[in-house]
Structure formats: structure tokens, C-alpha cells
UniProtKB/TrEMBL annotation:
CDD domains: INT_ICEBs1_C_like (cd01189). One of its GO terms (biological process) is DNA integration. Pfam families: Phage_int_SAM_3, Phage_integrase. It comes from the Bacteria. Gene3D superfamilies: 1.10.150.130, Intergrase catalytic core. Keywords: DNA integration, DNA recombination, DNA-binding. This is Prophage phiRv2 integrase. Site-specific tyrosine recombinase, which acts by catalyzing the cutting and rejoining of the recombining DNA molecules. Belongs to the 'phage' integrase family. PANTHER family: PROPHAGE INTEGRASE, PROPHAGE INTEGRASE INTS-RELATED.
């Protein structure tokens, strides 16, 4: 690995030795080298490219590497903050910039990485989605159960199992244990860059989750069990995708999203996103009294704080129900006067 690194640094130094190196030129070479190494997933490489093209190059691309100072990077962070990006997104962007600049240091093109002491103001992250009302959830459920289509099943997996849409699209029948009542989440659909000339810019690729916590078992609820048993009879192949086209290939995530939007339109519900099904699952689970640690594990979160701050919504009905407990205590303390 050390030999490979030295060769990389030497080739970079030689390539740029007599040039005024801009961030754009160096970052493109950096991403090319990372791709050639073949040590990171194609989906990760696509994400790196997206960060470089969308965030780094528009603001810093024309700057020479030796003019990108701590002050320049700090001002860049402020620009990102004004765009209302959340803290984790900004950290990811600066993390990529830091990796690029660190490689420039190793190649002898700059003396110091300017990203070392950057301050990113932490924003208090609260819920970013919304949940279906009880009435809307009932209407949606009745519609799904009345329309037998595997895309309807995809929506049920979001609503009754809290699965991510990328996990639903990659689900295979061998991942579903109907006898013991569990769904095993082992893979997801990732959108990666298409290197075929003249073809679509991106394509779907089945991959594995990045986080160990994302590999998990989800108990199957009774309402979902009935639907899964009904659809399972239509296929006998364990390798088959649960949410499959007639030819057997997996549906594109965007097709599932469009189907969901169509249902929402037909039922004249609020403008919910597919991901709001996951928020709804988490909130209903908490309202039912489920332990927060269990909810977090079912959702595949790295820590319960993510579940609490982003996915759990306190509804007016839940607040009212909890306030009854205070009323009961007050009646004990104050008697009828309460």
C-alpha cells in the first residue's frame, strides 16, 4: 500500500510540477486515481463526484491550491450554512475537500491542509419529515390492501416495516422468513455513474449498506404478513426480487416514488414523500409504547439519538393522551378541586 501511495504521489507531482494547479484540475485527478485503485464502492465514488461537482467546483474550482487558506475554507463553510444545508452534509463536503487537500500535501504541492481547524456550527437537528395523520394512514392502508400490485407491497414495506426505499427495491424473497416472521435487510439499490458512452448518466446497482447497523432483522407485523404470503405464492425463486417487473428485474427507486405520489394524488392526501412512511412507522411505534432502542435497531440507525431527533414526531393526539396522566396525578394531589 505504501509503495502504491508513493507512486501515486510521484505521478501527481510530475503531472502538476510545472503548472499553477487549480482545485478543479487536482480534484479531477484525485477522483480518477481513487477510481483506478478500485478500493471503494462505485456508489461511494459517485457520491464523491457529486460533492465535487455540486459544491466544491462552483465555489473553489478556479482557485489555485496554494491560495486555498483556512480563511477561504471558513468562508466557504459560511456559504454552505447560508444555503440551509444541515451539519452532517457540510461536514461531508469539508471532509471531501480535506481528503483532496491532504493528498496535495502528500504530493508536495502545498505545505499544509487548510481544513484542519475549520469550525462548523452545529445545528440542532429536529424532525425533517412529516407523518401521516391517523385518517390519512387509514385511507392509504385501505387503498393498498384493495389494490394487489407489488408496488403496493413496496409502500406497505415502508409503512409497516419502516424500510428505506433503496432497501425495499433490493429485497429478495430469500431475505424474507415467513415461517419465523422476519425480514433480513442485507442489501440496497445504489445509483452510480454509468461509464457506458451514449447511455444514461446513472444506473441502478445492487450493493450492501455502508453502516453495520443497517444490516438488521425486522419482525413482520400481522398486516404485512398477510400481504407477503399472498405475493409469495406468485414466485418460487428465492433469488427473485420481491418488488419486481414482469421480466424479473428490480424496479427503479424513482418508479416506486412515482407510484406512491400517484396514490397520494388519487386519495387527495397531503403532499407526503415516500420517506415519510418511515417517519410514520417510527412515530406510531413509539406511540404504541415500543422501546426506543428497539425502534432504532429496526430502523437501522447507528444510535438512538438519530431516531429521537429526526424520526420521532410528537403528535397533538399523543400530547393530549400523555397530559391525561398529569390530570390523574393532579386529581390525587388536589382532589376534586383539580
Amino acid at each position: 500500500m505504501k509503495k502504491t501511495f508513493l507512486m501515486w504521489s510521484e505521478s501527481i507531482r510530475h503531472f502538476f510540477s510545472k503548472r499553477s494547479v487549480t482545485l478543479e484540475a487536482f480534484s479531477r485527478e484525485w477522483i480518477r486515481k481513487r477510481g483506478d485503485e478500485g478500493k471503494i464502492k462505485e456508489s461511494t465514488l459517485t457520491n464523491y463526484q457529486r460533492i465535487i461537482e455540486r459544491y466544491l467546483l462552483p465555489e473553489l474550482g478556479d482557485l489555485r491550491l496554494d491560495t486555498i487558506t483556512v480563511e477561504v475554507v471558513q468562508n466557504f463553510v459560511k456559504t454552505l450554512e447560508r444555503r440551509a444545508l444541515n451539519t452532517s452534509t457540510i461536514r461531508g463536503i469539508i471532509g471531501r475537500l480535506s481528503s483532496i487537500m491532504e493528498k496535495a500535501v502528500e504530493a508536495g504541492l502545498i505545505n499544509k491542509n487548510p481544513c484542519g481547524h475549520i469550525v462548523i456550527q452545529k445545528k440542532w437537528q429536529t424532525t425533517t419529515g412529516k407523518i401521516l395523520t391517523i385518517e390519512d394512514q387509514k385511507a392509504l392502508t385501505h387503498w393498498l390492501l384493495a389494490h394487489e400490485h407489488n408496488l403496493s407491497l413496496a409502500v406497505q414495506l415502508g409503512l409497516f416495516a419502516g424500510m428505506r426505499i433503496s432497501e425495499i427495491a433490493a429485497l429478495q424473497w430469500k431475505d424474507i422468513d415467513l415461517k419465523n416472521g422476519f425480514i433480513q435487510v442485507r442489501r440496497n439499490v445504489q445509483r452510480v455513474k454509468n461509464h457506458e458512452a451514449g447511455q444514461r448518466k446513472t444506473i441502478n446497482q445492487i450493493g450492501t449498506p455502508k453502516s453495520p447497523k443497517a444490516f438488521r432483522s425486522i419482525p413482520i407485523t400481522s398486516i404485512l404478513m398477510k400481504s407477503l404470503k399472498g405475493y409469495e405464492k406468485s414466485t418460487a425463486k428465492p433469488e427473485a426480487f420481491v418488488i419486481a417487473k414482469k421480466g424479473g428485474s428490480a424496479y427503479d427507486v424513482r418508479t416506486i416514488q412515482r407510484y406512491f405520489k400517484k396514490i397520494i394524488s388519487v386519495l387527495k392526501l397531503d403532499n407526503y414523500r415516500f420517506h415519510d412512511l418511515r417517519h410514520t412507522f417510527a412515530t406510531r411505534a413509539k406511540e404504541s409504547g415500543m422501546d426506543i432502542q428497539i425502534i432504532s435497531e429496526i430502523l437501522g440507525h447507528s444510535e438512538t439519538a438519530v431516531t429521537m431527533n429526526i424520526y420521532l414526531h410528537i403528535t397533538d393526539l399523543h400530547k393530549k393522551q400523555e397530559m391525561v396522566l398529569l390530570d390523574k396525578l393532579n386529581s390525587i394531589i388536589y382532589g376534586k378541586a383539580a
